[in-house]
Amino acid sequence: MAIAFKASGFMPLMPGEMMRAALLSVLPAASPGLTVAEAGPLPLLPEALFPGGDKAGWWLKAAQLDLEAQGIVRREASKPLRLHRARERVQPGHSRPQPSPQ
What we know:
Elements: E1 4-5, E2 12-13, H1 15-26, E3 34-35, H2 36-39, H3 56-69, E4 73-76, E5 82-85, E6 88-90, E7 97-99
Antiparallel strand pairs: 1-2, 3-5, 4-5, 6-7
């Protein structure tokens, strides 16, 4: 199994973190965004962990839903579903939008 390392070089990234980083690397910052199919084969995913893209779909959906729940990614009301990075996100327990980390 391949292990990817964070910038510090010490903490290994888990498959979900790798997928999250890969998805964020391709999503545009504005509407209309991309469909999951348009996001295509995601960069940054190690072939040893996701050989030929196997199991990538499950991890992609999990990362998408997690990023949406955190307000980092937004979905468009369209068919097929389109995603883009959120400009601002609301922190849990806050009523005012907080600046999105870029």
